[in-house]
């Protein structure tokens, strides 16, 4: 008889769009939890939440919250992570951080388990969960890169509003209703809360996700570029990104152009590589109009790939359409996978 | 004193999404009309429409409809154009055809006036209006190509539902309302009427516009590829396209990657080229979050360009965000521009 070891788990940002999906994922995966601690900012503290039939009161996160915690899943914004992740680590917790705070820190592994699980091993208490749009892209590209090499990626994204949080979802809903009733649209949150200007997202497309950098790219675009190189351990791979927010609630889609190293690779070979990959599902049958869409991917933990075709001019170029639930594989699911890997591989101890 | 010559003008498909915009454009441009004839399929015949304060009854189009017509603007589907354009030409009319019926016919000029107006001159009675997504892209790329050359384009589109006609707009509206009320979505038209499968467009993204070709590309994608080469008189330019239908009513947006021939070109040079181009408006100031969106471009005749930035790896590569009202510059406005050019340049006579 084997006894399963159980762990004390904290979820920081429990009431948020990603936090609630973290709880759903912990439940779905039957994660070996001893005590569960739900944490949030002061503003959301006191909220009541249910997990596996038991009621929990969300508590305000403080450094002391992490005493006796084994695994802490962070998703309460970069500032909170910067402040509290070191405190949690100091108290012996391993933090899986879903914010951008530590992603490019050379001391912190940035992990998509299907791509670079081994990197988790070298953690110093913090493992970063990549940006949602990065995760699904590298998951789809990994089997292609493994077999045929990869020199270049050009991606244009089609990103759901849930990536901007629950309040942005309320804004999309309110604006959509107003638009359909012929009323004026109130824009108070998107594209970026706290920025100079707001634009309606309902029945619109906003070519800005996160703030602009000096080079004219948005931070979201630079995340895709830099994180891809880090996850793939390859500074030479060329990555370009254009990130666009669109009026749907869940799932990001991506139009991806990829150049492989090998000549003569066929679409069939790419399809086979993707079919055999873990966590990636091929949905690609043009004759029967089979391809993934945001609605069809919502609520599912996998990365879906369709519309695979060869570039008409470049023998090494291919085009793909990659869709995944941004709150699941793009965030909560990937974070819990990292936590599972920590346990399974005995990597919790530093 | 000069007397303005007036012309007998027929609009075929007058009740459709593009047809109504053609009438608006003829009015807005104060087109020199003597008699106006509104034509449609049998189904829509009998409808009453108003133009410049006068009532018109839409008539069923027959070959005889085009007796005494000088200029016929066609937008009633490729089948109708195939059948009636030769009849109209036989009767002395010049046809500006907004369908895909004749676009790739070597005898038929395919024209975006800002790009290749001179091609109109060689017409044999029919001039084709390019696909909406092609028009705005080539209009934006023309000033860049003129100054710096152009070897390659990779485009991912964000296309409005109005490109699929008025009934598709009704479907988007009905589905959006159902979704917001928690009801099931009925999909009966999109992505392609008469195809095997229908998918909801509300709060979704459909990576299919028009039918699939044997090579895995959609016909919409092949239109962008082939029409761009024809309009630019350049079979060597490499063009790749991924076309996606999105849940907004008006304006197509495009994420365009372009490689120029010259080295060392700067973003400022591109911005200047676009600023100076006819029919193209630069809306590009990241610091102040200025960029075009489908809602901001709707109802305007220009092509708007923003988010211009240099590729981080390729000195000759640039990324742009191109937005235009698909029913105006993408269809009706461009058609009427061609008609104006016929008159202005005395090119009506073959």
UniProtKB/TrEMBL annotation, chains A, B:
Sites where the protein binds phosphate: 103
Keyword Amino-acid biosynthesis belongs to the record: yes
Biochemical pathway: Amino-acid biosynthesis; L-lysine biosynthesis via DAP pathway; (S)-tetrahydrodipicolinate from L-aspartate: step 2/4; Amino-acid biosynthesis; L-threonine biosynthesis; L-threonine from L-aspartate: step 2/5; Amino-acid biosynthesis; L-methionine biosynthesis via de novo pathway; L-homoserine from L-aspartate: step 2/3
Catalyses which reaction(s): L-aspartate 4-semialdehyde + phosphate + NADP(+) = 4-phospho-L-aspartate + NADPH + H(+)
Signal peptide bounds: none
Molecular function terms from GO: aspartate-semialdehyde dehydrogenase activity; NAD binding; NADP binding; protein dimerization activity
Keywords recorded for this protein, A-Z: Amino-acid biosynthesis, Diaminopimelate biosynthesis, Lysine biosynthesis, Methionine biosynthesis, NADP, Oxidoreductase, Threonine biosynthesis
Residues of the active site: 132, 252
Function comment: Catalyzes the NADPH-dependent formation of L-aspartate-semialdehyde (L-ASA) by the reductive dephosphorylation of L-aspartyl-4-phosphate.
NCBIfam families membership: asd_B, PRK14874.1
Family in the record: Belongs to the aspartate-semialdehyde dehydrogenase family.
Name of the protein in question: Aspartate-semialdehyde dehydrogenase
Annotated organism of origin: Gracilibacillus boraciitolerans JCM 21714
Lineage start: Bacteria, Bacillati, Bacillota, Bacilli, Bacillales
Gene name in the database record: asd
């Amino acid at each position: 008889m084997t006894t399963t070891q159980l762990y004390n788990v904290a979820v920081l940002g429990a009431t948020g769009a990603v936090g609630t999906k973290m709880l759903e994922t912990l439940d779905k995966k039957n994660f070996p939890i001893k005590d569960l601690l739900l944490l949030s900012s002061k503003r959301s503290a006191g909220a009541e939440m249910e997990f596996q039939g038991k009621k929990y009161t969300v508590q305000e996160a403080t450094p002391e919250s992490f005493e006796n915690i084994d695994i802490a899943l962070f998703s309460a914004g970069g500032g909170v992570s910067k402040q509290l992740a070191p405190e949690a680590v100091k108290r012996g917790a391993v933090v899986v951080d879903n914010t951008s705070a530590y992603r490019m820190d050379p001391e912190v592994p940035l992990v998509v388990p299907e791509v670079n699980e081994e990197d988790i091993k070298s953690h110093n208490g913090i493992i970063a969960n990549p940006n949602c749009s990065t995760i699904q892209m590298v998951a789809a590209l990994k089997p292609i890169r493994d077999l045929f090499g990869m020199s270049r990626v050009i991606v244009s994204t089609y990103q759901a509003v849930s990536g901007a949080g629950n309040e942005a979802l309320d804004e999309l809903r309110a604006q959509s209703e107003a638009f359909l009733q012929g009323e004026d649209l109130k824009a108070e949150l998107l594209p970026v809360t706290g920025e100079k200007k707001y634009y309606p997202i309902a029945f619109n497309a906003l070519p800005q996700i996160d703030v602009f950098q000096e080079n004219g790219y948005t931070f979201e675009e630079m995340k895709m570029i830099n994180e891809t190189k880090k996850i793939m351990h390859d500074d030479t791979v060329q990555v370009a990104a254009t990130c666009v927010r669109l009026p749907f609630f869940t799932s990001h889609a991506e139009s991806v152009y990829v150049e492989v190293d090998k000549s003569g690779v066929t679409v069939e070979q790419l399809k086979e590589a993707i079919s055999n990959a873990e966590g990636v599902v091929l949905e690609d049958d043009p004759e029967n109009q089979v391809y993934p869409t945001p609605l069809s991917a919502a609520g599912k933990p996998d990365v879906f790939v369709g519309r695979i075709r060869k570039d008409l001019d470049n023998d090494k170029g291919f085009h793909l359409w990659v869709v995944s639930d941004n709150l699941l594989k793009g965030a909560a699911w990937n974070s819990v996978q990292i936590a599972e890997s920590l346990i399974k591989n005995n990597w919790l101890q530093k």
